[in-house]
Amino acid sequence: MADSVDRPEGSIRLNGVMKTYPGTSQPALHPLDLSIRGGEFFSLLGPSGSGKTTLLRLIGGFEYPNAGTVSVGGRNVTDLPPNKRPLHTVFQNYALFPHLTIEKNVAYPLRMAGVGRAETATRVGEALEYVELGAFARRKPDQLSGGQRQRVALARALVSRPPVVLLDEPLGALDLRLRQEMQIVLKQIQRDFGTTFVYVTHDQGEALGMSDRIAVLAQGEVHQIGSPHDIYLRPETPFVAQFVGKSNLITVADSGGGERSISIRPESIRLAADAAACDQRFEGRVIESLFQGAYAEVEVETRQGQQLFVHAPASSTPQAGDGVTIGWMRSDEIVLNGVG
Ligand SMILES: Nc1ncnc2c1ncn2[C@@H]1O[C@H](COP(=O)(O)OP(=O)(O)O)[C@@H](O)[C@H]1O
Ligand SMILES: [Mg+2]
């Protein structure tokens, strides 16, 4: 957060925005207030169908809300079409023009804005150098790899220096190694340009790694907004605890006589002799033990019938059928709102 400089022209504000698509009974997005700071890397994280794309398209102007207002840079843009908003959208399929060269693809937003030939050439050259595609200017999109096409789409998004760039699962089509490389590129670009990024993903690793803040969505509702640390270390609902990282949910009686869930992370649970110092201890039996490289994921069933995932050091992993003591510190329990 320290390096997220507040740039007012890139701030976004949603007030009471909601969306129900025609012919559907459930809102795709329940009424929502949201503030995104200028220069922030803000992710919308949730499973498929949770309303992420709908929210992004409402900001971009590709959908019109049933209620509420959208402001960008302090200006109400609710009634403006996408091309009149101070932003650029990068779609998952990159949406490059197949018949145009890379440089003409990147020049397109400048041509639309009526920027002159000489200045267009300079800025396109700079943008392509920046994404390390200077040597590919005369090629067509189908002569590039997936990762290179993605970088062309980024150059095109940045060439007109919009205060806000919207990205919908932009790395979804890339393999794991390239995805990780591109995460670093994206983060650098966002920081260098001071651009507000609103980044849609269903991948918690992407969201945790790149974001200043994350909004976690489920079924058209925002469950929690916070820094990656907050979301991971202090999930507020059973859904967030289970969707972000792996959690064990345990239902306990609360002081009012009702029930609530607590979450305990697999890495907070200790085994065998390591459990001796814990203030919560249970006897159990190992159901399954899966070697993961740096650690083993061990599933334990306690005598009370609770099944829990535990991370065990790879060097001393109990095997299926072994009896085992597990334990954790009460201070590592995360109390959630509601029962999961
Ligand atoms: N054009 C549409 N018409 C009708 N329903 C839609 C349309 N687009 C999305 N939906 C529905 O709205 C909900 C949210 O979808 P979406 O915003 O695409 O979620 P996500 O991007 O998180 O996968 C889903 O139930 C989806 O089926
Ligand atoms: Mg989507």
> What Rg, in angstroms, do the CA atoms define?
24 Å
User: Which series of helices and strands comes N to C?
Assistant: EEEHEEEHHHEHEHEEHHEEEEEEEE
Low-confidence stretches: none
Instruction: Determine the number of helices (DSSP H or I, runs of at least 4 residues).
Output: 8
Task: Using the coordinates above, name the CATH class of the largest domain.
Answer: Alpha Beta
Helicity level: 10-25%
Name given to the CATH architecture of the largest domain: 3-Layer(aba) Sandwich
Quote the average pLDDT. Answer: 93
The named CATH superfamily of the largest domain: P-loop containing nucleotide triphosphate hydrolases
| Strand line-up across the major sheet | 6-7-8-3-9-10
Instruction: Report how far apart the termini are.
Output: 31 Å
Bound molecules: adenosine-5'-diphosphate, magnesium ion
Count the domains: 2
Given helix and strand content, the structural type is alpha+beta
- CATH fold assignment of the largest domain: Rossmann fold
Describe the structure.
The structure is a single chain. With 340 residues, the protein is α+β, with helices and mostly antiparallel strands. It folds into 2 domains: 8-240, 3-Layer(aba) Sandwich (Rossmann fold); 249-335, OB fold (Dihydrolipoamide Acetyltransferase, E2P) (Beta Barrel), CATH 2.40.50. It is 25% helix and 31% strand. It has helices at residues 52-60, 102-112, 117-130, 146-158, 176-193, 204-210, 228-233, 238-243, and strands spanning 12-19, 29-36, 41-45, 67-72, 75-76, 87-90, 164-168, 196-201, 213-218, 221-226, 248-253, 259-264, 270-271, 280-291, 295-302, 307-313, 323-328, 334-335. The strands form 4 sheets. It has a 6-stranded mixed β-sheet, with helices on both faces. α2 packs across α3 (117-130), α2 (102-112) packs parallel to α4 and α3 (117-130) packs across α4. The structure holds adenosine-5'-diphosphate (ADP) and magnesium ion (MG). Residues 52-53 line the site of magnesium ion (MG).
